[in-house]
Amino acid sequence: MLTRSRYSGSILERKLKKPFVHILFGARQTGKSTLLRGLLPTNATMVDLSDPRERARFAAQPGLFIDLCRSLPRRDEGQTVFVDEAQTVPALFDAVQSLYDDDKERWRFILCGSSARRLRSSGANLLPGRSVRHILHPLVTEEYDEEPTRNAKPDARLVPLGEHAGPGLSRFTPRSLENRLVYGDLPGIASLDDDEDRADLLASYATAHLEEEIRREAAIKDWGQFLRFVKFSAGESGGIVNLAGVSRETGVAAQTIKGYYQLLEDMFIGFPVPAFSGSSRKSALSSPRFFYFDLGVRNAAAGIPLVEATVNAVPGSLFEQFVGAQLWRKLAYTANGSLSYYRTADGAEVDFVIEKADEIIPVEVKWTENPSLKDARHLSSFISEHKGRCSHGYVVSRCPYTLALNETITAIPWWAI
User: Fold this and answer.
1) How many whole angstroms separate alpha carbon 77 and alpha carbon 80?
2) Which pLDDT belongs to residue 1?
């Protein structure tokens, strides 16, 4: 069953049974509603605010939601109430709090949304102390069926997820690395068999769908300049944010650019990777890098041809963004560390740094099938400079199997991150 093949499915299925308000966020088309509908009990009550009639009804009279919930029969296990696109009617969060505080066992509230912007800007009640927040991302490699030659044990992976699908639960059909670099990892895209269909849907996402979503969530005065920003920022995805530079290229004020980046983050279209803060070197850069959440959406938004031959033009950049997104998603799911990068003004750099409570792990990304110590020279320097917390580094590449380059640096295949 496709809805249970998601890594988050096993986590959500267990957590949704707990008597809290559960809020699931994530960008459009990451599969939130599909996943939840596959996990909900058959007697769950669903309120779909993506339907304009339902949205208008509850926006005009939020009290109707309270009346609806109180009319539901009592159940020993609690009555599940699922609200899709909950952020479109922020007043419902107050209604949920009133009901939850009145009787914590009677209802199991599950709220789903694709943007936190309207909630934040309206000062909506995010139910502190009552809610558990979850975020659904595009697919990670473990959500695809593994080929026999790529069967890595969880403890052999750089960021192990653990078990995420039991016996008999289907996963997504494996795709080549090049295909994923071009078309990304949205579940709906991964489920298609035809690359032309993938390209058409991604083009639609990056134009009509993305435009509709952003117009609904934010009051942008100059739509033309925002579209220029989207195309430019997508093309620069993975780079260090330079507000002044983007302003010069797009003709948009730097402060406005900053707000645009925040809008993309609030809508889960992108995420920042901060600079590593544990360095004593004064020349270390401090501005964040910014990544689009999915390579397929990024490529479509940047106007890059959606064909596999595109990889030949900039393989290193696409591969680095792919690895960064995979690490970001897995660290978010495991809640076992954070992601940063390291770069200095004099040229020393490490693509990614995984920061955990008791260690830091530097990671270099190289588009090569034959990694060597020459690819790891910055890792060696980083390890030497951070002795005590850092003892080992990794080169992620297209090598077919794990290679020990020396006692402190290991090269691993991309599918083993």
Assistant:
1) 9
2) 35
Reading the block at residue 287, the tokens are 């501005």
> Which helix (H) or strand (E) covers residue 245, if one does?
helix 243-250
The whole-number pLDDT of residue 210 equals 73
Separation in Å, CA 195 to CA 182, 187, 188, 308, 401: 10, 14, 12, 9, 29
| Res 396: pLDDT | 97
CB atoms within 10 A of CB 383: 21
Q: Quote the CA–CA distance of 18 and 49 in Å, as a whole number.
A: 24
To the nearest 5 percent, what fractions of the chain are helix, strand and coil? 45, 15, 40
CA–CA separation, 181 and 299 (whole Å): 9
Cα 174 from Cα 143, distance rounded (Å): 9
User: What is the layout of strands, in order, in the sheet containing 79-84?
Assistant: 45-48, 79-84, 107-113, 21-25, 131-135
Residue type, position 139, single letter? L
Note the pLDDT tens digit of each residue in 245-294: 888 888 889 999 999 999 999 889 999 999 998 665 555 667 899 999 99
Question: What's the number of CA atoms in the CB half-sphere (13 Å) around residue 93?
Answer: 24
List the domains of the chain with CATH numbers.
2-136 (3.40.50.300), 142-416 (no CATH)
